[in-house]
Design goal:
Elements lengths: L2 H21 L5 H4 L7 H4 L7 E13 L2 E6 L2 E6 L15 E11 L5 E10 L1
Parallel strand pairs: 3-5
Antiparallel strand pairs: 1-2, 1-4, 2-3, 4-5
Organism: Acinetobacter junii
Protein name: NirD/YgiW/YdeI family stress tolerance protein
InterPro entries: BOBF_sf, CarO-like
Length: about 120
């Protein structure tokens, strides 16, 4: 095999490997969604970036896309982007399911909230 053929074969292998590795970055978010409901009490003890599914009520807006969420075990702050509401009105009596992940910030003091990816009515 001459030098040109070897280079062509190596280049082809590198391109195929690079393409395969690049395509593994696509993630099915539905597959990562938790299948069990997490209570507020449990959520407050989880590690950063842990996936959660909360069922309960949005009891009030606290500003800047932050809301107070409550279930039978307690309440916590959740961060919900405006576009996730899909124009649906929600009151403190509207049951919702929130799917997202735990977000922990330690400055200036420890703060645990949920960064919501999906709102189900």
């Amino acid at each position: 095999m001459n030098m040109f053929s070897k280079i062509a074969v190596i280049s082809g292998l590198v391109a195929t490997t690079t393409f395969a590795l690049a395509n593994t970055g696509a993630v099915n978010q539905q597959a990562l969604a938790p299948t069990q409901t997490t209570s507020v009490k449990q959520a407050l003890t989880l590690k950063d970036d842990s996936p959660v599914m909360l069922k309960g009520y949005i009891v009030k807006a606290t500003g800047d896309e932050k809301y107070q969420f409550s279930d039978e075990t307690g309440s916590m702050t959740v961060d919900i982007d405006d576009d996730l509401w899909k124009g649906k009105p929600v009151s403190a009596k509207t049951p919702v399911t929130l799917i997202g992940e735990i977000d922990i910030d330690y400055k200036p003091m420890k703060r645990v909230e949920v960064d919501v990816d999906q709102v189900q009515f």
